Amino acid sequence: MNANLPPNAIDSPERRRFLKLAGSSALLAAGFSTQQGWAADSTLLPRFGMVTYQWGKDWDLPTLIRHCEAAEVEGVELRATHAHGVEPELSAAAREEVRKRFADSSVVCVGPGSDERFDSPDPAVLKKSIERTKAFLELSHDIGATGVKVKPNDFHKEVPREKTIAQIAAALREVAEFGQNLGQLVRLEVHGQLAPPEVIVQVMEACDHQNARLCWNCNDPDIESGGGFAANFDLARPWFGDTLHFHDLDGKFRPYPYPELFAKLVATKYSGWCLLESSTKREDPVAALKEQRKIFRNLISEKKN
Fold this sequence. Notes:
CATH architecture: Alpha-Beta Barrel
Number of domains: 1
Number of helices: 11
Number of strands: 10
Structural class: alpha/beta
Distance between the termini: 30 Å
Strand content: 15-25%
Shape: globular
CATH superfamily: Divalent-metal-dependent TIM barrel enzymes
Largest sheet: 8 strands, parallel, barrel
């Protein structure tokens, strides 16, 4: 493979492999900096993908891949419990089939989007979530993906906030260490009551493991807390990994400063995944995906120039 193959080269098997590797643990190991996100000299731009949240939650795996190809969705995060059926219970043969389906397509499997969270005051619940996350990391490895999404997630009245932060950080560190041995990233979604950037950064500082990274989620606290959007983005940016969730770009969900977000991403050389996590329902999700991709590309192009 020609490692210097430009992203705009004509379509070929070599180019398709290059594009898949752009989201792989191999590239992660070669170009990831814990202080700057993806390497500053990267020539790649943010990539468009989706989460099977509302659009795609009822599609089996062949249908999901077919619709993603039709809409030119480059990658997909497989939200747990959805119709694709890619779960830790899969046999070795079934995992190989999933890996092959993606390898034979133009769609990258970014990884499972688990619903595991590490805030429970119940030690048994916490342990179960940690072990389940490890099972997802093994699954992600076996299907050829690069990491697993997890959640922090909430504070509890009977538990001091600092204790919950420390507990989440310790659990995150444990699964990050486990994932590192598999070449899998642990992606902590900025979510729940720990979503304010100044709070989630406390978790990352306490975790202090290079294999645990943030998945920015375009939440209201990004705008409302602290010093506002720009300050919050700058605070969290050193902890970004290779995934980011955004919501409907056509204004049909809730307002968010997407032009400013994409300007920041381009300016800071973010070349990971921007994954559409739509929270609306559409009559024709494939057509809606095409429209979202068009808006996304226009925003990226504007900020690049």
